[in-house]
Write a structure and sequence with these properties.
1 helix, 9% helix, seven-stranded antiparallel beta sheet, 129 residues, mainly beta
Length: 129
Amino acid sequence: MKKILLTAAILSFAFAAPVFAADTEFKSETSVSKSDDGDVKAETTSSATDAAGTDTKAEKKVTVDKDDKGNYKKTTETKAKKDPKGLFNSSKSSTKDTVEKKDGKMTTEHEKKVDGDTVEESKTEGSAE
């Protein structure tokens, strides 16, 4: 469980701009919660504006639901928007990744959208052992 929380904290820094210009504004917030039955939810939001006036916003949500049989479902959703200064030139992207282990079977799903169009989609199933 500590690995999940640590991973969520580390991944929150992935949204940080790797190089900061002198006039860059950056803000990031992370929240992590755990329910009594062991489910975990983590959410990170960040926003930045660089010296050229480009606004970048990102949001990441991770949920892990598990039961007492060892089954679990982990869903990771990301949304990002980049809006360079000017009109009608923003872009949006989103991804959704799901890993589910249930009754000895493992299922993974991946979907990526850019500006509303699905550009990647996959689903695999197999044994969890």
